[in-house]
Amino acid sequence: MKDRITRLIKAILFILLLSICVLLVTMVVRRKDSSEKYADFFDQAKKGNIDVLFMGSSHVINGINPVNLYESYGYTSYNMGGHGSVMQATYWELIEALNYCQPKWVVVDAYMLEKDYQYLDVMYDNTSESERSSSIEQLHLNMDAWPLDKLKIAAISDLISDKDIRKEFLFDFIVYHSRWNELGKRDFAVLSGDDNSSKMFGAQIRYEVDKSATVYADPEPEQGLSTHTVGQEYLMKIIDECQRRGIGILVTYLPFCATTEDKMAAKSAGDIAGMYEVPYINMLNADIIDIYTDLNDPGHLNALGAKKVTEYLGEWLYENGDLTDHRGDAAYSYYDECALRFNDEIVFLSSDGYNLYQQLEMLAMDNVSSIVYINQGSGAFEDGNIKRLIKRISGTDKIEATGGPYILINDLESGKTYEAADGEMIDGVSTTIGTMVYQPVEQLFRFLYAKENEEINYLYDDQHVWHDIQIITYDKFSGEILSHVYYKTYGHEYIVD
User: Which of 130, 139, 134, 131 has the alpha carbon at shortest distance from 158?
Assistant: First the structure.
């Protein structure tokens, strides 16, 4: 009898140990994208700290920044957008989210409203296998973080046709157990409880500047989609759900290089919003972004574009949303911490000379003060994207009327910008660096110095005489020089040194 009890105890301990090992292995090999994206969602939802949910596709995940919204208005939000999320995937993600929080507003973007298929693993008859695989892969970002329950089973059954593929979402060890050769430090960090949340409340901000924007023809006036699509059906279900729960709903169509069909879909989104008497903002028709400076690629906003769109939505919520400004409330201090972290990132990128377009984009975010100098003969004067970015910083068109030299001082502490072009001087303007004087002498020699320390000429360095573009960044409060980057133009390229 004693031996039987001993064997039973050993068997139970073995099963327990095996279960723990399987659990730990599952945690390690599971892809971390989804858990990192939603870690802060579960935490903030538990505290009741989420007032707004932003729903939609990659246009949302890249195009709306909850950190900017909190900094500017004090509104707390979470970006639930997912790459490739068609309306039915967005619907189910909303239903999952509402299990954990009761937001005051849901903002849903209607991109891909024209998609007329139910299952993401089937799509259309002529869809390639690579597109289907990509669609399934992208859905994991939206779904992996949610626990296995009846709701998740219903969602996957509605989104995926193939029963074997369904199992990959319901028991994700099936698809991730072979990731051993991909594992890195990030994967094992989960065992130590390290915080790998995104700190961006679900957003993924991009930092490139697209230089090949295209404008497509408008459809006929009042021309929407010709058929009622699956996408339209699920937008209606999203609106129904929010109205049933007493949640404010705003439908949007975020800006990008929209095709003619996209513009038709935007019209249909407005029609649906009108049917339900809910507000709709078609940002394709609003003067919010500059497609030549504010896109990361033709379909997605960069950091500067996301800031503009977020602040536009913030102003709408301020006027219509009846939301509370939580800034200064200790219960929301985590939002302040994340805002500081994001601003540190922008300061770093503003000072970094990796890419001229990107650096000018970051300077336009107004986190660091700067001096931009372009020598006469520079190819930058023929580059429309460069000039647009500089006009975004200066607030004037002065750079359009010169072939150089040109200088711009953007002093954020004083809130003033100073410009000079051709033979103009700047004589004793107040900045946090000092009282600045600029004087062009000859093409390879310019004066820029502070009256408090005339020995330092910021625009001359023997090693960089032939560099035609210089960018100096400095701390907007202390005046400390953060970086001095030199660019040399080669054709349409800007080489940093």
Answer: 139
- Report the helix count and the strand count for the chain, using DSSP H and E: 16, 16
User: Could you tell me the two tokens for 271?
Assistant: 């029609």
Tokens (6 digits) for 257: 């290089």
Q: Judge whether residue 433 has pLDDT over 80.
A: yes
DSSP codes joined into one string, 156-220: HHHH---HHHHHHHHSTHHHHTTGGGG--HHHHHHHHT-----SSTT--------S----PPP-S
The full length of the chain comes to: 497
Edge to edge, the sheet with strand 435-442 lists 426-430, 435-442, 445-450
Coil/strand/helix, residue 463: helix
pTM for the predicted model, two decimal places: 0.88
Pairing type for strands 426-430 and 469-474 reads unpaired
Alpha-carbon distances of 79 from 43, 51, 69, 89, 97, rounded to whole Å: 14, 11, 11, 15, 11
pLDDT at 212: 86
φ/ψ region of 479 (left if φ > 0, alpha if ψ in -120 to 50, else beta) reads left
Classify burial at 247, counting beta carbons within 10 Å of its beta carbon; exposed 0-12, middle 13-18, buried 19 or more.
middle
Measure the CA–CA gap between 476 and 384, rounded to whole angstroms.
28
d(CA 244, CA 92): 16
* 70 alpha carbon, distance to own chain's centre: 14
Least trusted range by pLDDT, from 183-197, 215-229, 375-389, 482-496? 183-197
Please provide residue 350's backbone torsions phi and psi, each rounded to the nearest 5 degrees. -65, -30
Tracing tokens 């319901």 back to the chain, one arrives at 170
The distance of Cα 51 from the centroid of its chain, to the nearest Å, equals 19
